[in-house]
Amino acid sequence: MTKKGIKIVTIGGGSSYTPELMEGFIKRYDELPIREIWLVDIEKGKDKLETVGAMAQRMWDASPYEVKVNLTLDRKEALKDADFVTTQFRVGLLDARIKDERIPASYGLLGQETNGAGGIFKALRTVPVILEIVEDMKRLCPEAWLINFTNPAGMVTEAIRRYGNWDRVIGLCNVPVHAIMVEPSLLGKKEDELIHKFAGLNHFHWHKVSDLKGNDITEELIEQLMDENNGLPKNIFDVPFYEEQLENMKMIPCGYHRYYYRQEEMLNHSLEEFKTIGTRAQQVKETERQLFELYKDPMLDYKPEQLQQRGGAYYSEAACETIASIYANKNTQIVVSVKNDGAVPDLPADCVVEVMAYIGAEGARNVAFGELPVAEKGWLQVMKAMELLTIEAAVTGDYGTLLQAFIINPLIPSGETAKQVMNELFIAHKEYLPKFKEIISKLESQGLKIKDSVVREMQL
Amino acid sequence: MTKKGIKIVTIGGGSSYTPELMEGFIKRYDELPIREIWLVDIEKGKDKLETVGAMAQRMWDASPYEVKVNLTLDRKEALKDADFVTTQFRVGLLDARIKDERIPASYGLLGQETNGAGGIFKALRTVPVILEIVEDMKRLCPEAWLINFTNPAGMVTEAIRRYGNWDRVIGLCNVPVHAIMVEPSLLGKKEDELIHKFAGLNHFHWHKVSDLKGNDITEELIEQLMDENNGLPKNIFDVPFYEEQLENMKMIPCGYHRYYYRQEEMLNHSLEEFKTIGTRAQQVKETERQLFELYKDPMLDYKPEQLQQRGGAYYSEAACETIASIYANKNTQIVVSVKNDGAVPDLPADCVVEVMAYIGAEGARNVAFGELPVAEKGWLQVMKAMELLTIEAAVTGDYGTLLQAFIINPLIPSGETAKQVMNELFIAHKEYLPKFKEIISKLESQGLKIKDSVVREMQL
Amino acid sequence: MTKKGIKIVTIGGGSSYTPELMEGFIKRYDELPIREIWLVDIEKGKDKLETVGAMAQRMWDASPYEVKVNLTLDRKEALKDADFVTTQFRVGLLDARIKDERIPASYGLLGQETNGAGGIFKALRTVPVILEIVEDMKRLCPEAWLINFTNPAGMVTEAIRRYGNWDRVIGLCNVPVHAIMVEPSLLGKKEDELIHKFAGLNHFHWHKVSDLKGNDITEELIEQLMDENNGLPKNIFDVPFYEEQLENMKMIPCGYHRYYYRQEEMLNHSLEEFKTIGTRAQQVKETERQLFELYKDPMLDYKPEQLQQRGGAYYSEAACETIASIYANKNTQIVVSVKNDGAVPDLPADCVVEVMAYIGAEGARNVAFGELPVAEKGWLQVMKAMELLTIEAAVTGDYGTLLQAFIINPLIPSGETAKQVMNELFIAHKEYLPKFKEIISKLESQGLKIKDSVVREMQL
Amino acid sequence: MTKKGIKIVTIGGGSSYTPELMEGFIKRYDELPIREIWLVDIEKGKDKLETVGAMAQRMWDASPYEVKVNLTLDRKEALKDADFVTTQFRVGLLDARIKDERIPASYGLLGQETNGAGGIFKALRTVPVILEIVEDMKRLCPEAWLINFTNPAGMVTEAIRRYGNWDRVIGLCNVPVHAIMVEPSLLGKKEDELIHKFAGLNHFHWHKVSDLKGNDITEELIEQLMDENNGLPKNIFDVPFYEEQLENMKMIPCGYHRYYYRQEEMLNHSLEEFKTIGTRAQQVKETERQLFELYKDPMLDYKPEQLQQRGGAYYSEAACETIASIYANKNTQIVVSVKNDGAVPDLPADCVVEVMAYIGAEGARNVAFGELPVAEKGWLQVMKAMELLTIEAAVTGDYGTLLQAFIINPLIPSGETAKQVMNELFIAHKEYLPKFKEIISKLESQGLKIKDSVVREMQL
Q1: Number of C-beta neighbours around residue D233 at 10 A
Q2: pTM for this structure?
Q3: Is A336 in contact with A364 (CB distance < 8 Å)?
Q4: Which chains touch B (3 or more CB pairs under 8 A)?
């Protein structure tokens, strides 16, 4: 780190999350003496960047600390000599996510923006961009840490390591943060009275909990969770898990496991929303619109309550704490997506997993979890295969590889409908998928178009 | 082996397949000098046993060889000093399979009698019985070989080894036999001009093909297969594989992979049959009825043409050849379900896999296949997890374990419908599931019954 | 833990290390409020127990805390309701170790009391006793933690887990403590400016070091170590490592690796000592004698300087810190022998390894190290095989298994001499090897005796 | 294969083994219709090539078949359109092997020309040459099979696959052939009454044996082997294995395991020979001289008896049978060094192992052996590490890597003597080690020379 203080760069700085990030940095200023912050965005996001950037500067100005928030559309200018780079960009903005969700839904399938059909296309759009960023970092800030919370965070982190050959990367997610914060109260305990261990992939992990006597109290917690159906981030519909299943696994699945363990109900709920209030992305778009309205208020110099309602709460908390822990070698326990190194022995040592880790100056020191039971081991291995196929397709532009990813994905029933969804998503996102240019041209020449209903919706 | 000649015992000897088995033995008498054959069945199958048994004796009498076909309902009497035991029984007969298929179908789900919901319940019914047979064999014929072709053959073989601790077992299936016989003609070649390598699980394997120059010609064969959509056993609906997928995997999947790779179409086809001509089991039942009519003809002393039409053609061919190869240490290449020993390095060395093997006096000498590509590796690992959960549930009677098997099964969308299907199958098969007695009582006390429509159908 | 305060039991309490242990507890009383300490020993060690026990009580009396030090020969009385049990006993006392070293040396072989021929016999003597202790603990203090520093600490911990089925165990060693304390000064840094990662087995591990910028500075440290030949516990002869080798491995081996990497020099040095000043055990025996002279002084109420000179310095430091970290869930980083859980992916997840871990209420949270380079991976796998063979022999009493351990041990050249050493060690330790009773009788009936020279030496 | 008949190229064709090779081809002409044979050698070997080449032609002329034996020093001319290439060359001829043996022996260490210090340097000399040959083959005969019996055959085959990226290679050794031929008679059986399974590395494998009832009779065979101390190739001193060890492993080690299991006796025997009749290589040199005297006899047109006395008997038998099996897709069982593919699950699937395989048109179909017991697993892993380090050093020319290979090698006690041996071997072989040119210059500039005694011996 430079002696003068820390330079932080946020790519996708025009995001509505930025104020939470600022709040996190302000709170930790004593241990994380920031000198300058750079918010980077693209031309299309310029207005938002200016709005949220002005608000970010107001937040610092209202604090006791003198920090300059720089706004730029020039990523390279920002990256020069950065100490930490956080990524929270969306290729194609929320409109792309709306397509990720609505196109599958229009065929009666789940979009699911992280691990489903939507998530696969989000990865296809994101991987080429993040690999460009990594190339810039190699030249401009080779010692910087990349803190990624662009979804699908696990696949993006895997791509950064595997195809970008960049080691200084940590992927983050708010799902485990949520679990760790909510669970103690279910057991009438304080946060530091529970000990957590995680194993799995992003949005696909399990955890176990011990008390301060060193006893595994996961089963006790499962009982409480079943009673209260608590412990769930806001962006996941709350159909309960089957108690018999949880008793068998003796671990706690993450909220996203509902998509796998209660596929029918999650699909129905998602189709219901699709037909009525709009998909999750559409709801988020409205929330975002309202947030930006608030941010425009020149008197607002603190994070507004409403941001908490947004799905990704605690993301920024995790990000700021990760950065501070690296900088100050704090050894804080945080759940992260990082190189396995054996922590999850059922997966290869060199792939990316999501585990509990102690975060310090050299990055993540993963807590070895040990072998998983047979069911969870099987799930994990098939999901990692799906991830690897997806990012391989993103890098090679191979149609067959992507088809394999679609077919193996447990949330997508294979067959003609799935293939049509895949083809229509190609058309929908064509400007962000240069690797698939030829394939898309061929599909278009066959007359393939996005369904009218989806197009109409987008214009609303 | 005894010097006097070989004693062969067939459990489920009243099956319509028995004549094929006899034909196979007669054909191989020179290398496999059989002394006596015992056909064993249960009280309920007595009539069929007598019909097919008489016919079997006629076949031998029409041959140049003097072999006595003994019929018995006393398994222990038959097993005493046996050299080879073949198992082709169905717990609950075809009616049970009809329930396996119709109950899921009545909810819009796939029954699939081997790897789907139906197959899971078939395993639950079969595993306790096969483990009893193994216990008898330990006492009565500890040096005998068990040649299993009761489905789901992979899971049953796994249970025999893992829970029965019986090593001298080989599981058989006609699917690979079919592929090996059909493929040469697609390439304008003779059968001995192709070299096959298999890896996977029963009804879930892939293979590669080389020519006599040692060149891998799998891709050429894929092209032919796509053109002709050939190479498919009769019991599988012939929706074509996606060419792009096969080009990516560079291996040939088995026919049953259609259920996984074209889930939508296979489901629709199965529901269509359910609503019109009846499920596959119902069709088989009719075929069987006709076969037994033929078998009653006291003049019939050879395998009738019609048996070929039945799904399992070549099963018995594989069985007879396996037995002859063990007896005469022939080193014939046969695809079998046996202990892995590393042949499929992506699965544990001590689990059961389906691979090409050279069969000789010490059983199967598996051909090591090497690592699978990422997609197939993921599929294989999740399917083995499903198998292990199913047979563990069969042995322990644990509801949660079985629920995990249902939920992880790629052919079953998880959720309430799946759980109701599972519960209704419990009721339907209660007499064959003593391990689950308490659970079934509880379900019944909650008023759970089999759907009227399914009951009605069964009475037809 | 009981509310009244902590009960600590030390088996082998008559050891000369006990005052260091007391000092460690006194230093940490604020976070580790001990109520009572029980020092347990056997009849033969009664005098020492009384001497060191009185001294231990004096140390507490000189402190601000009121703690009772109980002395007993009745292990069961002591274990009742214990919170922590530490084991530092030597089956056969130092005299047994002298035989472990002198008998091999009399044949020109290395004794090496931890991983060599001597260490193998130390394990044979110790494993049955530790398994008895574990059985007592299951009944008398089933929630207690067992902190083992009886050597060979890795094998003993493996036996406790594998054959004793006891999970709450942590094996400790002073070698990594030494490295962590010495290395910063070599680089002109403070202790908290280096970050360590360890992987391997007890007395057979490697480590890597990073600085607070997150850069791996192991190579820089290797240079310093080669220059100064520092970082070595006192009980290991200081022949330098080959710089070319260390540069290749890019890790720092532990001091004991000298036995493997400089076998010739270590053997010559050990034979030289054998012939002149006596083996290490003989030197230690003299040191111990002097220490006990000091301990008898009724005015001595603090740990004397001279104890530092003894080989095991810091052992007790590690033990006290481990206990305090468990009790207060401190998450201190300590290098421990514990269940792998994947931290060293080159070894099975369920075996014991020595790794860096964060120690807290649920025990060790191992830092995943990732795969080792090819040479170190090979070494590790062969050494773990040696360990597993040794403890299997200790449990089964099988001569062939032990012979395999001897032959595979890299410090023992196989052949008649090695076999004679093995046989003579059987005779020498016969009273502590009840499992091998018949084998030893047979050897004695063949006229086998301990060499006169060794007997004579023992009587000195 | 070309229709006109087969072209076979033998590199190192001037070897004394060539007549055995010719005999093998003549015997198999019916199934292996050879058109032309090319014997390739280097300038230094020209005389021998002419002698043995003339004799080879006489052998064919005395046969019913018309085959031309071509002699050339131009490898490329020979390789053009070859169908099979066999390699039996020695870089540096027998004189280099004499140095490999005598230099270590002069320091009291084992030379051991395959897995010891000598074998390591043999690999260093051979790997660069075989990689050149492979490059030639890629251009001149890309469909040819490379049948390697240049030692150390396992390491050479590993190098061909790993660094040459050439798949069509099979490594051969006569050691397993010997075992398979000798063992039946020990049990009063015929050759086709035993079934063999092998696992391990070249000169480092174990095997198990079954009878025609499928029973494992390895333990019975061990008893016979211990009684008769039979089953040993001529080039290995016959100190017996320890019966207790063999009973524990329940497998039969290969003859070369004597070096590992009876290190002391093998070393003493080798030093004894060194001081009296000369090392093995010196004896072989004399045998070779005598053989070439015979070969000069223009009347000799058959393989002379005396060749049988030479160590490598059956090598050529294995080579000819391998070639015929590939050509005619015979599925003969032969023990070969090939890509593992899981056959030995304790080693990575992509490394080279030595296993039983069925040899056919696509090469080796390895028989999966299953997991090894703990001791043999450990041995195997450490030996594969030694092999990988050696060939890596051969390719990179890195001194530290080679030092690691020396230190990990179980036949070399680490330390100054070993390092001096290594350095002196560098000097001795400098003309064949271009990758180590700088290192050797440095050693020479420090005044390092080959010991006079070794030099003197060489001049004899």
Answers
A1: 20
A2: 0.96
A3: yes
A4: A, D
Mutation target for C interface from D256, D346, D404, D423: give the one with most C CBs within 10 A: D404
Match domain A6-171 to its CATH number in 2.30.30.140, 2.60.260.20, 3.40.50.720, 1.20.1050.10. Answer: 3.40.50.720
Instruction: Print pLDDT tens along chain A (460 aa).
Output: 445 789 999 999 999 999 999 999 999 999 999 999 999 999 999 999 999 999 999 999 999 999 999 999 999 999 999 999 999 999 998 899 999 999 999 999 998 878 899 999 999 999 999 999 999 999 999 999 999 989 999 999 999 999 999 999 999 998 899 899 989 999 999 989 999 999 999 999 999 999 999 999 999 999 988 876 554 555 567 789 999 999 999 999 999 999 999 999 999 999 998 888 888 888 888 888 999 999 999 999 988 887 777 666 677 889 999 999 999 999 999 999 999 999 999 999 999 999 999 999 999 999 999 999 999 999 999 999 999 999 999 999 999 999 999 999 999 999 999 999 999 999 999 999 999 999 999 999 999 988 776 766 655 4
Find the helix or strand (DSSP H, E) in which D197 lies.
strand D195-201
Q: Is A256 a catalytic residue?
A: yes
A309 SS3 class: helix
Q: How many CA atoms are closer than 13 Å to the CA of D394, on its beta-carbon side? A: 29
CATH number belonging to domain B6-94+104-171: 3.40.50.720
Contact A450, A422 (CB under 8 A): no
Domain ranges of chain B: 6-94+104-171, 388-459
CA angle C43, C46, C51 (to 5 degrees): 175
Task: Cite the active site residues of C.
Answer: 256
State the DSSP string of B164-212: T---SEEE--SHHHHHHHHHHHHTT--GGG-EEEEEEETTEEEEEEE-T
* Distances, alpha carbon B445 to alpha carbons B438, B454, B455, in Å: 10, 20, 19
Question: What's the residue count for chain C?
Answer: 460
Helices H / strands E in chain C, number of each: 18, 12
Residues 6+ apart with CB under 8 A from A332: A321, A322, A324, A325, A358, A359
The identity of residue A98, as a single letter, is I
State the maximum Cα–Cα separation within chain D, in Å, rounded to a whole number: 67
Are the C-beta atoms of C115 and C172 separated by less than 8 Å? no
| B334 DSSP β-pair partners | B357
Nearest residue, CB atoms, D368 vs list B211, B214, B341 = B341
Tokens standing for residue C368: 């995943």
**What are the tokens at D16?**
């004394």
Alpha-carbon gap, residue B77 to B345, rounded angstroms:
41
- Looking only at the bridges linking them, the beta strands covering A363-366 and A352-360 are antiparallel
Helix/strand/coil for A7: strand
Best CATH choice for the domain C6-93+103-171 from the list 3.50.50.60, 3.30.750.24, 3.40.50.720, 1.20.1050.10: 3.40.50.720
DSSP state string for A152-214: SHHHHHHHHHHTT---SEEE--HHHHHHHHHHHHHTT--GGG-EEEEEEETTEEEEEEE-TTS
- For A149, A306, C410, D405, D406, the CA distances from D419, given in Å and listed in that order, are 52, 71, 18, 11, 8
For the CA atoms of B16, B18, B24, B25, what is the dihedral angle to 10 degrees? -170
Alpha carbon distance A253, A257 (integer Å): 6
Least Cα separation, residue B294 to chain A (angstroms):
41
Chains within contact range of chain C (3+ C-beta pairs < 8 Å)? A, D
Mutate one of C414, C426, C436 to test the D interface: name it (highest D CB count within 10 A). C414
D382: nearest CB among C264, C382, C416: C382
